[in-house]
Amino acid sequence: MAPARGLRAWWASVTFGTRHPGRRVASLGILGAISGVGEAVVVLLLVALVARDGGGLPALVPDAGTWSLAALALVAVGALAAAHLGSAWIAARAAADAQRSLQLMLLDAFLRASWQTQHSSPPGELQELVTAKARLAVNGTADAAKAVATTATLLILVAVAILVDIRATAALIAVIAFAVLVARPFQARTRRIAVRTAAASSQLAGRVADTARLAADLRIFGVGDRAREGLAGSVGATARLARQIHLSANATPALTRDATLAVLVVAMAIVVTSADVSLTVLGATVVLLLRALSHAQVLSSTLHRLADRWANLAPIMERLEAWRPAAEPGRRRCPQIGAVQLRDVSVAYAPGAPDALAAASLVVAAGEQLGVVGPTGAGKSTLAATLLGLITPREGSVLVDGVPLAELDPADWHARVAWVSQDPLLLTGTVRENIRFLRPHVDDAAVERAAKAAVLGADVAGWADGLDHAVGPAGSALSGGQRQRVALARALAGDPQLVVLDEPTSALDVHTEVAVRETLAALRGRAIVVVIAHRLSTVNLCDRVAVMRAGRVVALGDPRELAERDPYFREALALSASAPAART
Ligand SMILES: Nc1ncnc2c1ncn2[C@@H]1O[C@H](COP(=O)(O)OP(=O)(O)O)[C@@H](O)[C@H]1O
Ligand SMILES: [Mg+2]
Q: How far is the centre of ligand 1, averaged over its atoms, from the C-alpha of 355 (Å)?
């Protein structure tokens, strides 16, 4: 079971991204065999040349003069070199293909995974897998390719040795078998350490990502040194494992070589004492033996390194499996978004966790502007994410004009919806790039209109390069309010038919509040707007308001009417406003 799995994984890693894996491995085998033949021929010619006597050697050594033998040997060396170059070229191609396809597979799988899966991925995990583990995993692909060629060479050398002398070959095979046997327990040990190293380095990557993200907070709270101590612990653990890996990787081939040499001495003694062998035949056998031995060593250290690569490949395979979406994407076209309905929708963030939405129901009519209020933790952001199709409900359904959202073509749906999340994140780039947000159909005119509608005019005028102003790494060079308005402009720029604004004025900035009013006015009648708000001034602009509490919609109606008669509404507004920027 385990060897079969290992073999499958090995094959998968040799053949990643190769269009004709069988052909590639076969070519390596053939080139390896050519190397073997070339090498054997060179050895035999060399022995015949030195001994001035081809007697006792196979017929393939001609009876010729010294220079003819030397010329033939040089031709064989040429063929040998060409075969080596060819197999190196194939191995390099295999490794490069493997790296590219492994990295793309990881990125594709992550981007296609459900949002809940993406959201629960530890910080730094994807970066680590794509940039570090994928490269470590394919490092061994060239090694695996080399192992194929080396094995073929070895087999040919053994075949030639049989032709030369069957008894000496028995000794040869014993030596090679011994080399492989001696290395086996060491390989198992390396593999165990490699698995632990891969886990430790993932943990370190997570801590490093956290440290980078929280740099300001660590400083303000004066706990930088503590964080460093924690990191030093992780760094130390990975260093200890690295020492063990290097030790076993460096010592194993050398020790295997020494042990094999000892067996070689004994084997030779037995051959010499038990049989009458000519000096030429013995010379040829010894040289063939030594060549085969060096290939066996290469094979052994290659297999050793492959253990390390497997440890990095395993977590990648695991993630690829875990990120696979549970359901096929829908295929129904969605030319127009009319009414959107939540019908008895329950959402839990983890199996067995309390419901963040508990049988919530709501209908938003075409063109309607709906306010959502409620204390923090009431489920407002969860409702927003569910409405947009980021979260798949545990129970109940989201219907778009009566059609389940899951049945709609995601490309169609996402071309027509937009949001401003509670904590807007920006790309590292310019304001223009952030408003366009990789959508080629959003032209410069659309970007400018959206910036204006999101009340970014004064800010843009203030920046020397206007819309081409750099927002800094992940938007860090903008104020919270500016970030929110850029995110608002991004939402407006694609002419969406459904816009969800999650606490768009949480940055407590007057311009942003004006921007939200402008946005609501601009979108009136053109799009459904769901705005999660904690200010009466925003909520009052809406057609209706939903009051949420503990995952349910507990009141729904005209905002002025609710303000007068509904205690929940007044309480919810008060509670929300008291923690305006809470991230829950
Ligand atoms: N990613 C998450 N994982 C687990 N629980 C979450 C997650 N996001 C929100 N919750 C929980 O779900 C509930 C509703 O949260 P949320 O919808 O963000 O509330 P609101 O936006 O109204 O403040 C809260 O109890 C919150 O702790
Ligand atoms: Mg929220």
A: 9
Give how far Cα 7 sits from Cα of 10, 18, 307, Å.
Answer: 5, 17, 12
> Residue 103 has which token pair?
């990295």
pLDDT of residue 577: 62
Going by C-alpha positions, the residue among 514, 496, 497 that lies closest to residue 505 is 514
Under CATH, what is the fold of the domain 425-495?
A: Rossmann fold (3.40.50)
Atom of ligand 1 nearest to the CA of 384: 17
Q: For residue 583, what pLDDT is reported?
A: 39
The label of the residue with tokens 């101590």 reads: 229
Question: Which CATH number is 334-416+497-584 given?
Answer: 3.40.50.300
Confidence (pTM): 0.79
**Domains 334-416+497-584 and 425-495 agree in fold:** yes
Q: Which residues contact 301 (CB under 8 A, 6 or more apart)?
A: 249, 252, 253
Atom of ligand 1 nearest to the CA of 503: 21
**Per-residue pLDDT for 581 more than 50?**
no
**In whole angstroms, what is the distance from residue 11 CA to residue 7 CA?**
6
Is pLDDT above 90 for 543?
Answer: yes
CB 105 within 8 Å of CB 320? yes
Q: Which residues surround ligand 2, an ion (CB under 5 A)?
A: 380-381, 422
C-alpha to C-alpha distance for 79 and 437, rounded to whole angstroms = 55
Q: Quickly list H helices, 275-354.
A: 279-322
CA distance 152 to 583: 62
CATH number of 21-212+240-322: 1.20.1560.10
User: Would you state the pLDDT for residue 503?
Assistant: 82
Structure-model confidence comparison of residues 386 and 167, the more confident one: 386
H-run or E-run covering 342:
strand 340-348
Return the closest-CA partner of residue 201 out of 245, 161, 265, 139. Answer: 245
Q: Whose CA is nearest to atom 11 of ligand 1?
A: 356
CB 454 within 8 A of CB 519: yes
CB atoms within 10 A of CB 220: 10
Average per-residue pLDDT for the chain: 85
pLDDT at 9 over 70: no
Q: Which of 46, 11, 10, 293 is nearest to 150 (CA)?
A: 293
What values do phi and psi take at 388, rounded to 5? -85, -5
Q: In whole angstroms, what is the distance from residue 47 CA to residue 58 CA?
A: 12
For 279-315, write each residue's pLDDT tens digit. Answer: 788 788 888 878 887 888 788 778 777 777 777 888 8
The burial of 216, by beta-carbon neighbours within 10 Å (0-12 exposed, 13-18 middle, 19 or more buried), is given as exposed
pLDDT at 449 over 60: yes
Shortest-distance ligand to the CA of residue 383: 1
Task: Calculate the CA 47 to chain-centre distance.
Answer: 53
Domain ranges of the chain: 21-212+240-322, 334-416+497-584, 425-495
Mind listing the pLDDT tens digit for each residue in 58-76? 666 677 778 888 898 899 9
Please tell me the distance between residue 457's alpha carbon and the centre of ligand 2 in angstroms. 28
